[in-house]
Amino acid sequence: MEYILLFFTGICATTLGTLAGGGGLISLPMMLLLGIPVHSAIGANKVSNTVSSFSSFFHLYRKKQLSFKEVYWIIPISIVGGISGGYIASSLSEKNMYVIAIGLLIFAFITSYLGKGNFTGEESLRANKISIPGLYGIGIYDGLFGPGQGTLMLYLFSYLNIAYIRAVGYVRLATFSSCIGAATTYIMNGKIIWPITIALLAGSLTGAQIGVRIAEKLKPRLVKPVLRVVTIALIIQILVNQIM
């Protein structure tokens, strides 16, 4: 029964994560509720995110909705950002990490009303003075804390006037890049409970394919309202975790 529940948890979490980020809102609390040790729960998430993120990206790449030549540089920036965030995390208290997370999410929420981007643009993603520090900073956040990484990245691509379906593909590639190192670390440290991880992974792969197909049909004008709802939910979850 536990494995079936984890399978459907993976579907729901990754469908949401693909569309607007914030899949951890569903998967991590559910695993902790089932009594799974926190490091094993995070490790299961990282492993499943690595595989499911790549599957979403590959689906869009195969359909020629995006070009690898345009986005290959995301990979090293996300990896270095994740490593930097992990290093910084060792010198910060948990309380300060929560403050940073809430501050970034509130900032993203406010700028979503100020910015003109609405995911209808056809700009190409270029390495410039906004995209490089933006992606690197979000990579640091992912390594430092994690929840909301995909949501923050979608806000960045909206500001850069990137079409929604391409933004989804770029976010999934960045998530794959930042998670692969973390997943390897958890595996090498023996933190992975494989039956649980495989059940979540199977659901995540299914959710990734559901999510990317919904994204292909989702009207761009609906994306920002969904992002704002997910952002508020993330802020509430972080505040509740801090209080408890």
UniProtKB/TrEMBL annotation:
GO cellular component terms, A-Z: plasma membrane
Keyword terms: Cell membrane, Membrane, Transmembrane, Transmembrane helix, Transport
Subcellular location: Cell membrane
InterPro entries: TM_pro_TauE-like, TSUP
Membrane topology: Multi-pass membrane protein
Alphabetical list of Pfam families matching this protein: TauE
Membrane-spanning parts: 71-90, 97-115, 135-157, 169-187, 193-214, 226-243
UniProt entry tagged with the keyword Cell membrane: yes
UniProt family annotation: Belongs to the 4-toluene sulfonate uptake permease (TSUP) (TC 2.A.102) family.
Protein name in UniProt: Probable membrane transporter protein
Organism of provenance: Perspicuibacillus lycopersici
Lineage: Bacteria, Bacillati, Bacillota, Bacilli, Bacillales
